[in-house]
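Tokens as discussed.
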């Protein structure tokens, strides 16, 4: 007997979908399932959407930090996100403690290890190059191979001080020498180093986060056109990730990029307690609404938070509604209503399309959202 039957749902294309879950795995998927026997049934009455569980591939949820921190469950299952990846809050010195804390969370939690062994204890973690250590990064990955899914380097002036591009060169060296292939996520912000320098060092499959920030060192030139080297990097396979955060997403940059057919591969929040509580991020649903309001379709956005981050970070049993995959599922409504959406430059857009999560299902366990 199955544990859970989800019936009369709609996928992101508004097509019918039903799912049967057993022992934490997806047992059957189809437009309409027959001969179903299950302990529990959720009948969505053809009103709610069902997708693979949402994956937020850039969060900051190590609770013991002073700057960027949060509870993974506040960013995760309570908002429809079934998997969060912390983006370098911890380095080799603290990632073991982070791992221990996350074992008691309902949300699936993974981590990118910061190339600085101290992680985000301070804003300038890459000012001291001696804090970058291949042996210590490798040892941490050996100890937590199923937890550490990537490496992170923050390449803005406040972080690297006078080291320029050198910390990223060291990060690429570490990535190349690791015994396990892992993606590298690179934070970009104020210069130096210049974005052109950063992207020259990056390879296919490396992830450029904060891709739609509105800063002078961003992807747009003085004529509001995509810089040539940015287009070249995009076409050569650098992964563009939104990484909204407090300071790193503007409607204007995103709209110009869309006009140039430069779409983000992944949508992430860069959420921490401050941007969750005070905005402009709030949650993944709000970030989805922002892409919808500038013209993306739901069917274009859902892969950005399911299949693509799962592929990029080698989460091989997540991100798809297919037999034998993990039973991580997000159920949500889309309703009409008025809402103000604010970007990182305090520009406001009004949307009439609201994304309202109803259930997070993680490894087959059902969590109701918002008291529904």
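Sequence:
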């Amino acid at each position: 007997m199955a544990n859970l039957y989800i019936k009369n749902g709609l996928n992101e294309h508004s097509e019918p979908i039903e799912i049967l879950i057993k022992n934490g795995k997806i047992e059957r998927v189809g437009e309409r399932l027959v001969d179903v026997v299950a302990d529990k049934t959720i009948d969505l009455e053809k009103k709610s959407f069902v997708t693979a569980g949402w994956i937020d591939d850039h969060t900051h949820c190590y609770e013991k930090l002073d700057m960027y921190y949060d509870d993974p469950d506040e960013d995760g299952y309570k908002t429809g996100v079934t998997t969060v990846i912390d983006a370098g809050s911890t380095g080799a010195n603290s990632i073991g403690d982070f791992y221990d804390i996350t074992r008691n969370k309902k949300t699936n939690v993974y981590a990118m290890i910061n190339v600085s062994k101290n992680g985000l204890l301070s804003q300038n973690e890459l000012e001291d190059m001696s804090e970058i250590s291949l042996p210590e990064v490798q040892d941490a990955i050996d100890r937590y191979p199923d937890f550490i899914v990537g490496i992170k380097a923050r390449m803005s002036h406040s972080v690297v001080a006078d080291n320029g591009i050198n910390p990223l060169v060291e990060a690429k060296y570490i990535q190349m020498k690791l015994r396990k292939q892992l993606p590298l996520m690179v934070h970009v912000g104020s210069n130096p180093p210049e974005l052109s320098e950063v992207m020259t060092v990056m390879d296919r499959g490396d992830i450029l986060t904060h891709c739609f920030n509105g800063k002078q060192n961003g992807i747009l030139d003085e004529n509001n056109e995509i810089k040539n080297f940015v287009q070249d990097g995009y076409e050569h396979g650098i992964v563009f990730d939104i990484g909204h955060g407090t300071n790193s997403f503007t409607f204007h940059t995103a709209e110009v990029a869309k006009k140039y057919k430069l779409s983000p591969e992944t949508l992430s929040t860069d959420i921490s307690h401050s941007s969750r509580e005070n905005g402009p991020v709030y949650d993944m649903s709000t970030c989805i609404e922002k892409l919808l309001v500038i013209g993306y379709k739901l069917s274009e956005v859902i892969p950005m938070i399911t299949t693509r981050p799962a592929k990029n970070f080698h989460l091989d049993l997540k991100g798809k509604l297919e037999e034998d995959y993990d039973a991580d599922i997000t159920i949500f409504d889309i309703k009409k209503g008025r809402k103000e959406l604010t970007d990182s430059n305090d520009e406001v857009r009004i949307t009439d399309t609201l994304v309202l999560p109803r259930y997070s299902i993680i490894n087959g366990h059902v969590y109701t959202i918002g008291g529904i």
